[in-house]
Amino acid sequence: MARSLSLLERLGGKKEEKRPAPEPSRSSKPEVKQQLPQVQPDYTEKQIQQERDAPVEASAFAGRRALTAKNDVMQELKLAVHRRIVDEMTPEEQQILVRGEEAREQIKSIISVYSNREMAENAYPLSRGERLHLVDDISNELLGLGPLEPLLQNDTITEIMVNGPKQIFIEQKGKLKLTDVHFYDNAHLMNIIERILTPLGRRVDESSPLVDARLADGSRVNIIIPPLSLVGPTITIRKFSKKALSIQDLVNFGTLSEDMAVFLDACVRARLNILVSGGTGSGKTTTLNVLSSFIPATDRIVTIEDAAELRLQQTHVVTLESRPPNLEGNGAITIRDLVRNALRMRPDRIIVGEVRSGEALDMLQAMNTGHDGSLTTAHANTPRDVLSRLETMVLMAGMELPVRAVRTQVSSAIDLILQQSRIRDGTRKITYITEVQGMEGDTIVLQDLFRYVQERIDEKGKSVGHYESLGLMPSFMDKFQMNGVDLPKSFFTSGRKR
Predict the structure, then answer these.
(1) Same domain membership, residue 150 and residue 89
(2) In this predicted model, what pLDDT tens digit does every residue of 358-384 receive, in sequence order?
(3) Are 405 and 285 found together in one domain?
(4) Which of 9, 170, 408, 429 shows a CA-CA span of 20 to 30 A to 23?
(5) Torsion of CA 30, 34, 39, 44, to 10 degrees
(6) Which residues constitute the domain of residue 22?
(7) What is the DSSP string of 144-174?
(8) What's the number of domains the chain is made of?
(9) Whose CA is closest to 288, among 393, 416, 411?
(10) What is the pLDDT of residues 279-305, one digit of tens each?
């Protein structure tokens, strides 16, 4: 019984000596408190004030109700059912529980039986719908990430932000919303955090209070706990679509125009080195994933990331992931270490999820030494800003290089910059496609090829604008010819709206 008990004990229940079932009583709430004094959650905090932004409607999140006193009763009932499962589960039922997600329906049937027993003995006044939600919630505690599970299953949600146990925000259609979902207390939230990190071999505690991780579906997770977080354990989950997005999806979303999509396809096949820049949440990783889909299946691709997020469709892909230091502070493997190692792996293409510091120097050297067609991302607000950031990151490598030498490296390595922005209405758009032409004196010369022109914000708060070509012929057209990529010169027409 040890294994199943360990699963259940993390939910707040502990194995105790069997005690006789209480006599049926109409006053159920006081009796539950007497049975479970050591696991009763502490609700000394006031619930989130109702005058804040209206929470997301319950129908969007598995029928959860607003934060009222009824939820306290439901939570007491959940804890009572947890205790009953721990105390009364048979060996046969334990074997079903050990099977986990593949036996979800059987586990829900078992939970339903124990829930009905508890409600029959203590006369909880729940409707049929509430009973179904109760079984779903307990199943999520056993098999998933508890209260977060309905949010993770909702495909319209792109980001989940847990600010302590009582406040959970989501990003939906580019807008932030406060939900009515919450955890019992800090201990309950920490249990879910441990469940995220344990399969990855990561840890978080007072000596190491922040960590980056990922979920099984590739979604990126950042966790930070006290004493660094003053609001309690904090989780930020950047969700990824279960279906890999295509370039046509981005066109349909309005992220870029069809002509821009055709041009980027040609650039990737012509083995141009492309840098995607933008702010946090602007969609850089999504765009990088779509660009990678243009790489021929015959190429050997090496991807390098802090937390593996890219999902390439090709067969010949080697995925590398950096490693944080261990408990003794040793054994860390950085992005820079992986970039240097990738050069010995005979790659046709190197894709670095994001350059943040000294690895920029190794990435630029790789692009300048026969690894054409490499892709990467960086944080910046404009194409000009990202070049300045690259200079700074190269200097972070600890090399005493003159600024002109650094700029020469950057200008010869990077062929194209894609600037991606999150517009005020929450949509993501590629606002510039800019060519890096080379050096003129001590300055890197840039030339915009495409851009997004915002005309106005309509009465619904939506951005109204258009994409246009500036009618300038890029200087790298010879690379198109060398790699057998056909893009007619008439493709570039000045001022043409796309």
Answers:
(1) no
(2) 889 989 988 888 788 999 999 999 999
(3) yes
(4) 9
(5) 50
(6) 1-39+51-143
(7) S-GGGHHHHH-TTEEEEEEESTT-EEEEETT
(8) 3
(9) 416
(10) 988 889 889 999 999 999 999 999 998
